[in-house]
Every structure is written in structure tokens, then in C-alpha cells.
Amino acid sequence: MNLETAGGDETGRVKAAYARYMSPEVTEYLLSQQVGLSVEEHNVGILVLGIGNFATVTEGLRSSEMAELLDRHYDRVVPTILENNGRIDKYYPHRGGILATFGVPIPDISGIPIPLPNPELSAVIAARSLRDGILKFNSEAGNPEFDFRIAVSSGLTAIGIIGSKQRLEYTVVGESVTLAHTMIALARRLNAEILIDENTRNTVHRQYRTGEPHEIIPPVLSRPHTFYALM
User: Fold this and answer.
1) Which of 82, 86, 50 lies closest to 172, judged by CA?
2) How many beta carbons lie within 10 A of that of residue 30, not counting itself?
3) Computed over its alpha carbons, how large is the radius of gyration of the chain?
4) Domain 37-229, what fold?
5) For the range 200-204, what are the long-range contacts, defined as Cβ-Cβ under 8 Å and sequence gap of 24 or more?
């Protein structure tokens, strides 16, 4: 996509897509430099959070009560991601989940793109902090006990403006994104609060202990992958 040849409506849609995720200053820089207007590949850490019993614990709540619970939950989750140089890509409010990315090069206020040197490690640090935060949330009076699972995968991932003329999103796509989503069910099956893929484990094994390897063909994929519970 080239903004020099794009019409005003198309430019406006791209700007709106950026503005959902970034500050006005960064949005203007990205547009002026045409950063991300073509899909690019980067090494990215992917974190997916899933709450397995969200439908059960919210059953019978009024919609306003469910929204208030989600706000309290996300007030704990989102700062943990941001403090570890992550970016919220998507919310999954129907199950209390998120998709977060680490390593997507976003310019700082000076306009210089800052790549994250070790996105796998940042994602794992965030996952561990997220686990601690949710366990604390569960222990507080008046809060439900969320049955949570966290998945972390990593690898080359396509990043950019993706969608139709009616709706565009600045997002990530690729096998590592698909893999992380399938890992939530596997984490529950393996009774792991945090499950990481082999690529991530190879990067962080000196810093963090992991469980035994599990070679599994994930749902919707055709070849086996190796997974580890993160201690």
C-alpha cells in the first residue's frame, strides 16, 4: 500500500488502524515513513492468555457486571504486558483473554524504530508476571477464581496493516500466532499454567527451568511440535 497514490479515504482508514494501537505522534511518524504499510517479517514473541472457566464464572451476571469484572481483570493484565515492552494486539472479552506481541518494532517519540533485542525472553518474563498477577487476583475477596492458561511461542511473524477496505488492523499473522492459540488447550491438557514452544525454550532455558518435553501435533496443524511447561 502506497500512501502517495492512495486516496484520502484509504489514507484515513490506515490512520485509523494505527491510531487504535499507538500514540498520535507514532501514528503520524508511521504514516509519513510508510512503515508497516507493506507486510514485513520480524522475529516476534507471541503471548496468548485464556481463561478456561470464564463463561462459567460469569454465568448469571448482568452485562454491566461482566464488563466491570473484565475491566478489573484487564487493569491487572495490560500493565504487565506494557511494562515488558509488549503490545496488546487483541482482546478476547468473551473469554477474558488477550493476544500480545513482543518485538514488533515501533518508533519511540523521536521517530526511531526500536527493535526488542530478545522478544522471547520479554514474552516469558511477562507470562510469569501475568501468572503471579492472576493468582493474586484470584485470592482477593470478591473476585472469581480464574482457571487461566498462558501460551508463549516465537518465530518469524508477518506484521502490518491487514484487512479489507472496510476495516483494517495493524496486526500479526503466521504459524507462531496460530501455534500460540492452539497451545492454550494443550496447556490445560498438560496441566501447565504457562506453556512455551521449543523455539522459545531454546532462547530462555538458561534463565528459566522448564518441564519435560512433550511432542504433540496441535489441533488444526499437521506436524508435531515440542512444548514445555515453564516453571
Assistant:
1) 86
2) 22
3) 18
4) Alpha-Beta Plaits (3.30.70)
5) 200/45, 200/120, 200/123, 200/124, 200/152, 200/153, 200/154, 201/226, 201/228, 203/118, 203/120, 203/121, 203/154, 204/120, 204/121, 204/124
Residue position matching grid coordinates 511518524: 29
Please check the confidence at residue 180 and state whether its pLDDT lies above 60: yes
Contact, 126 vs 196, CB < 8 A? no
Q: Report the alpha-carbon distance of residue 77 to residue 126 in Å, rounded.
A: 10
The torsion defined by the Cα of 175, 219, 197 and 76, in degrees rounded to 10, comes to 90
Q: Where are the domains of the chain?
A: 37-229
CB 151 within 8 A of CB 183: yes
Q: What pLDDT, in 10s, does the model give residues 29-76?
A: 556 655 545 677 889 999 999 999 999 999 999 999 999 999 999 999
DSSP structure string for the chain = --TTTS-HHHHHHHHHHHHTTS-HHHHHHHHHHTTTSS-EEEEEEEEEEEETTHHHHHTT--HHHHHHHHHHHHHHHHHHHHHTTEEEEEEETTTTEEEEEE---EE-TTS-EE--S-HHHHHHHHHHHHHHHHHHHHHSTT-----EEEEEEEEEEEEEEEE-SS-EEEEEESHHHHHHHHHHHHHHHTT-SEEEEHHHHHHHTTTS-B---EEE--TT-SS-EEEEEB-
Report how far residue 148's alpha carbon sits from residue 25's, in angstroms, rounded to the nearest whole number.
Answer: 36
